[in-house]
Amino acid sequence: MKIVSLKAYEILDSRGNPTVMVKCKTENGVVGVAKVPSGASKGKNEALELRDGNSRYGGKGVLKAVRNIEDEISRTIVGKNVFDQYSIDRTLINLDGTPDKSRLGANAILGVSLAVAHAAANVLGIPLYRYIGGVSGRILPTPLMNFINGGAHADNNLDIQEFMIVPLKFDRFRDKVRCGSEVFHTLKRILKDKGLNTGLGDEGGYAPNLASHREALNLLIEAIEKAGYKPGEQVFIALDCAASSFYNEEEGVYEFEGKKLSGRELSEIYAEYIETYPIISIEDPFAEEDYESWKSFTEKFGKKIMIVGDDIYTTNPKLIRKGMENGYSNAVLIKLNQIGTLTETLEAIEMTKSFGWKPIISHRSGETEDTTIADLAVATNAGWIKTGSVARSERVAKYNRLIEIEWEMGI
Ligand code: PGA
Ligand code: ZN
């Protein structure tokens, strides 16, 4: 089934910044659509998001990426078989010719890669998770729900970027979502009663100013309990520290709660959190170049909790392999736009699993209503998904898609 056209548009993401939308049409008139997300706390090795850099949208326009799709990429991809995902992705990588996809833009390349996959699924008349995962895609992921936002995602005083609850001990996905929603609304009441701000951060969690990070953790525990659930039995806690964002590279110290800390001192604080709270996962506990801290922390806690690499790996199979050889972590955050094609993302997931590590499929802080990651999580039996809070439609869209898939599967 031949691809007959690729159309691209400059649209908006959830922060009101431009992003790329792609429509891929096949010879029988079927269309596949993808919309590309965008991060705020990025790893240094991420594939490059091409921005225009002129006066429009404060330099964030994506008309160059749109033009690259409609000119150069179209000329190469139109006429190809929509089912040749691997070959199309390889062609895009080779056409770009740079290691970080900076010539054509990873936003252009990912938009095309995903639009092709959606078109292929639509041609077959099957859902995307079925197209990608075949008969083996069957596991609904457990969500890590980000209810208190800090760091680069909020204007408050929290250094840690994400305080998440993990509704784990429920059989069905929709019961996990219900638990999350009930805890979320209970948390709002608690914040209100304490006179704290209930405005939302970029990923839909609350973003109050708090006296300490422990206060954020205490609030989550209180909300879980008051909503009628048992922390440490049914519902657990996860953190994304995004520590590169509070690492002072020149001095080699972490600027955390107003103090300057070494990697070892920061590890000790995390150790105390793990002692006190039912934490099952910590993402980016250290800066992406602070390999020693990653390694010794994983040696100490790798049997007990998930230690998740995001900025340190940027969904890049080569970096994930290096992490495995050196024992930096035991889990990997998977973001399609960090690497830039579906094929490479699937490779990163496969590699992660082949070490016995856990993949967590993830959104970006700048999102759209696109729900590809929900299908990807089911298709690959990843087991985990990080897609923000249960408020803001760009986050909720993924939960709703997973609820739909669960019903479709007859679970
Ligand atoms: P980002 O944040 O999309 O702003 O990079 C998400 C994360 O760090 O996991
Ligand atoms: Zn992260």
Provide a quick synopsis of the model.
With 411 residues, this protein is an alpha/beta fold. The protein folds into two domains: 3-125, Enolase-like, domain 1; 134-408, Enolase-like C-terminal domain (TIM Barrel, Alpha-Beta Barrel). It is built from 13 helices and 14 strands.
Second rung of CATH, namely the architecture of the largest domain: Alpha-Beta Barrel
CATH top level label of the largest domain: Alpha Beta
Q: On the 0-100 scale, what is the average pLDDT?
A: 98
Output the structural class.
alpha/beta
Percent range for β-strand residues? 15-25%
**DSSP helix count?**
13
Shape: globular
CA-to-CA gap between the ends? 33 Å
| Overall radius of gyration | 21 Å
Number of domains: 2
CATH topology type of the largest domain? TIM Barrel
